[in-house]
Amino acid sequence: MMLRTCRVLYAQAGPATGGWQPLSFDGGAFHLKGTGELTRALLVLRLCAWPPLVTHGLAFQAWSQRLLGSRLSGTLLRASIYGQFVAGETAEEVRACVQQLQTLSLRPLLAVPTEEEPDSAVKTGETWYEGNLSAMLRCVDLSRSLLDSSGPTGNILMQLKVTALTSTRLCKELTSWIGKPGASLELSPERLAEAMNSGKDLHVSCLSTKQNQHLQASLSRLQRVVQHARAQHVRLLVDAEYTSLNPALSLLVAALALCWNSPREGGPWVWNTYQAYLKDTYERLRQDAEAADRAGLAFGVKLVRGAYLDKERQVAQLQGTKDPTQPDYEATSWSYRRCLELMLTYVSHQSPTCHLMVASHNEESVHHATKRMWELGIPLDGPVCFGQLLGMCDHVSLALGQAGYAVYKSIPYGSLEEVIPYLIRRAQENRSVVQGARREWKLLSQELQRRLLGKGLQAPH
Questions:
Q1: Which of 156, 191, 241, 440 is buried most deeply by CB count within 10 Å?
Q2: Residue 281 pairs with which residues in a beta bridge?
């Protein structure tokens, strides 16, 4: 009902006071960064656009360690790829990185670089997942401690990978049963939420005894993370993953939302991620928004284009199933724009119970979002924020931050051994983003040329 009302009111929504001024993503904000930072960014981004490095990244790392030794190889990685995309290993290093971001009016979105790949080996027992739970709880504490009154305030956000706390095999099994006759009662968000709140054993008939035990342990871990995050005033953004897992992940998020996204509790504390490159995303997003409205729940969304395009198409071809992805880049952009329009209209009438992160490196999408925010009267530093990866798209992030928008940088942290495989997987999933950073290379080169020739603004000391 609310979304139908929003569509009626859409034409009536008036612009905020003052005229909208389009942001300039011409690299002018690079004057805020040092020459060393810009040089490293240019070299690393060019290097990451070399397809063999992305495809065979782990092999290159192993070869480097054998040839140069672990110490020298690690030093080179820290000075290049690790230093560009990772905050550090210790809490002190992460804090120093975040303080530097805060001086640039940017905010942290911490990410524990741990996940279980769909084709990984079966893990025995709960030890690995319990270890990840401890890491997630520490990440919540670290996220809370990074709030600095001297930097930009606002929501404290953190990324959460559900597959660090529950097995991909269980998610696949749940996904295979969701939607089947009779499964809607056994696998309802309400039933899972009741089990989370009560701690009582949950039995799902389609699962084996061992799978039921693992589900129970997984629900307990998820509940503990959100409970701790809520106590620390940290909002959790749950990452979307492969389509073979996403229905199960959405079921778990819906259960957590029932437990924690009451507006009376200051929700939403649990947000879900929607991938615009999937054909069914707009309809799912619309249905989920209306369901949250009917249930009286706050609603949090992270909107992305999506990172698993090649893999999804390969799986569909191998299995002889329908390709779930949009046919081309233009169709994905149109899907993203439709989802963005839906959510911005919804936010303008549901704020502060509806929150949105526009997670995009696409300048056109960001321009459109800022213009629609002005037209709909959504404040710059309100329920809508922007998100980009640490070490990428700084010409957009810096321009947004300097203009007063809430901008978060996704920040992995941890040891080389933990983070480098994670970064390589992200690069493989985001080939189009990494290889499409040519405009950023050009802007970085122009700024460095200005400094070398002694023209324009000088680098900060």
A1: 241
A2: none
Distance between CA atoms of 305 and 358, rounded to whole angstroms? 10
**Residue 325 β-bridge partners:** 278
Report in angstroms the alpha-carbon separations of 276 from 76, 284, 358: 36, 11, 12
With beta carbons less than 8 A apart as the criterion, state whether 409 and 434 touch: no
Q: Which amino acid is at 292?
A: A
Amino acid identity for residue 4 in this structure: R
Q: Angle 281-295/246-260 helices, nearest 10 degrees?
A: 20
Q: What is the largest CA-CA distance in the chain?
A: 72
Give yes or no for a contact between 165 and 130, defined as CB atoms under 8 angstroms apart: no
Q: Exposed, middle or buried: residue 195 (CB in 10 Å: 0-12, 13-18, 19+)?
A: buried
pLDDT in tens, 104-149: 999 999 999 887 777 677 787 899 999 999 999 999 999 999 975 4
Tokens 């970064």 belong to residue: 423
User: What's the gap between Cα 60 and its chain centre?
Assistant: 27
| End-to-end Cα spacing for the chain | 55
Residue 389 sits at φ, ψ, to 5 deg, of -80, 145
Nearest to 288 by CA among 276, 271, 305, 263: 271
Rounded to whole angstroms, the Cα distance separating 25 from 35 reads 19
pTM over 0.85: yes
d(CA 98, CA 263): 30
| Interval 335-345: pLDDT, tens | 999 999 999 99
What dihedral do alpha carbons 69, 71, 76, 80 form, nearest 10°?
130
The strand pair at 384-389 and 234-238 is best described as unpaired
The tens digit of pLDDT for each residue in 265-310 reads 888 999 999 999 999 999 999 999 999 999 999 999 999 998 777 7
Is 89:413 a contact under the CB 8 Å cutoff?
yes
